[in-house]
């Protein structure tokens, strides 16, 4: 009888410990920002006198899931050339441009309007002041608009938030950019990808 009581007590204690272990929530591991530096995506060469394109240069295709440049035939999310950023419409990639502080955007805003590329219409608008950058015609420089964040739904259906930090090689301070000698179309940006399909970062 004593043995039976002892075993029952041990069984009850084990079940209690197991139940507590099951109720303990998994620790939340914060997502870390990935830094991409000097992604070179030069624009077409244009004759400044005639406006004619003398050399067509390719887009550079980037996978947010792989954090790497990939071939056009692979699962790319974004394609860069000059100041233009395309999304992979054939794989249902969509994007939205929102205003906010990168570090403070903890979730995809319900107000964000996602779109994909269609013909000459881009999900990430082109032109100074329209999307991610401003062009200063006095200094001939391109600078990211402070507080502009790109949201992207990837080929795998996961969400990412992106902040473009620089358009010039080496990410120089704006005051040190010489449009005649500082190589442009070298993107430095950071992004956070939520790999589990949820809208939180």
From TrEMBL:
Name the keywords, alphabetized. Answer: Signal
Q: What is this protein called?
A: HmuY protein
Cite a single Pfam family from the UniProt record.
HmuY
Q: Does the keyword Oxidoreductase apply?
A: no
- At the top level, the lineage of the source is Bacteria
Question: Would I find rRNA-binding among this entry's keywords?
Answer: no
Which CDD domains does the UniProt entry name for this protein?
HmuY
Q: Where is the signal peptide?
A: 1-21
* Family annotation (InterPro entries): HmuY
């Amino acid at each position: 009888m004593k043995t039976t009581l002892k075993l029952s007590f041990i069984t009850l204690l084990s079940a209690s410990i197991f139940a507590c272990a099951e109720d303990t929530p998994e620790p939340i591991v914060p997502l870390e920002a990935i830094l991409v530096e000097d992604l070179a995506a030069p624009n077409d060469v244009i004759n400044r006198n005639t406006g004619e394109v003398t050399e067509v240069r390719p887009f550079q295709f980037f996978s947010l899931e792989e954090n790497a440049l990939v071939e056009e035939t692979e699962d790319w999310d974004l394609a860069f050339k000059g100041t233009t950023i395309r999304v992979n419409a054939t794989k249902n990639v969509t994007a939205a441009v929102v205003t906010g502080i990168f570090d403070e955007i903890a979730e995809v805003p319900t107000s964000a309007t996602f779109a994909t590329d269609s013909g000459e219409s881009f999900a990430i608008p082109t032109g100074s002041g329209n999307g991610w950058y401003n062009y200063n015609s006095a200094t001939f420089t391109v600078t990211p608009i402070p507080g502009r964040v790109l949201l992207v739904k990837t080929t795998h259906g996961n969400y990412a938030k992106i902040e473009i930090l620089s358009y010039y090689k080496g990410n120089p301070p704006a005051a040190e950019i010489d449009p005649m000698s500082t190589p442009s179309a070298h993107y430095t940006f950071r992004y956070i990808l939520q790999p589990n399909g949820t809208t939180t970062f």
